[in-house]
Write a structure and sequence with these properties.
By secondary structure, the protein is α/β, with parallel strands linked by helices. It has two domains: 2-67, Ribosomal protein L30/S12 (60s Ribosomal Protein L30, Chain: A, 2-Layer Sandwich); 75-230, SPOUT methyltransferase, trefoil knot domain (Alpha/beta knot, 3-Layer(aba) Sandwich). The chain is 33% helix and 22% strand. It has a seven-stranded parallel beta sheet with strand order 7-6-5-10-8-11-9, with helices on both faces. A four-stranded mixed beta sheet has the order 1-4-2-3, sandwiched between helices. Helix 5 (123-128) links the parallel strand 6 and strand 7. The chain starts with a strand and ends with a helix.
Length: 231
């Protein structure tokens, strides 16, 4: 059993229908709205202090649910996607959640997360994704480089995003099947993953400050490589 929290994450988990709900715990002011969506699921009202304790967070917005564990998507199922995003050593749950939200919203992209040195799909990640993680196809793999190789065999072109990349992102060709590699907050794309990239691109910036948060970079890259090139 897992606990998820936040009004949007819980409502999106209900809408996605992937999890078994055991009970929903809510502040009194949210009861009517949650009960309408919950159907036959038991809804219990608790104090904010009790919800803080169960969620292990104060950012639950008065809604907490006990649910079945998150189920990752097999990597083979991502091969049906047009866009896949690989997260290389991204360990901040806020960044991981924000990237999942952006990738799903802009491109219906599959997400690949390695088992080690990565933020997995936790309640904090689900909250940061505003519930998008409940709908998105997310795979967890032992070896991210092997996953990139597998994607390339299936016809994906791998584009790494790095501040020192030699190619401006606007000059990356339009690909029918695209895999975007995003590097960790401090180290960027590891050398082994960079070797798998067909192109390593950068986002041109003006001014002396030349660094973007990885989730911001993900949004810009996906808009440029997917949305803009298909409009």
């Amino acid at each position: 059993m897992e606990v998820i929290y936040g009004k949007n994450p819980v409502m999106e988990a209900l809408a996605a229908g992937r999890r078994t709900f055991y009970e929903i715990l809510t502040a009194r002011q949210n009861y009517d709205e949650i009960a309408r969506s919950a159907g036959k699921i038991r809804v219990i009202t608790l104090s904010r202090k009790e919800l803080d304790h169960i969620a292990r967070s104060t950012f639950h917005q008065g809604v907490v649910a006990r649910v079945s564990p998150y189920r990752y998507t097999p990597i083979k199922d991502l091969m049906q996607k047009k866009v896949v995003v690989l997260l290389d050593s991204i360990e901040d749950p806020q960044n991981t959640g924000a990237i999942i939200r952006t990738a799903y919203a802009l491109a219906d992209a599959g997400i690949v997360i390695p088992e080690d040195r990565a933020a997995h799909v936790t309640p904090a990640v689900i909250k940061a994704s505003a519930g998008a993680a409940e709908h998105a196809s997310i795979a967890r793999v032992k070896n991210l480089r092997a996953a990139a190789k597998e994607l390339k065999k299936e016809g994906f072109w791998v584009v790494g995003l790095d501040a020192q990349g030699p190619v401006p992102i606007s000059e990356v060709p339009s690909y029918d099947r695209l895999a975007v590699v995003l590097g960790g907050e401090d180290v960027g794309i590891r050398s082994g993953m960079e070797k798998e990239a067909d192109i390593v691109a950068h986002i041109p910036m003006k001014g002396p400050f030349n660094s973007l948060n990885v989730s911001q970079s993900a949004g810009i890259a996906l808009y440029e490589l997917v949305v803009r090139k298909n409009t």
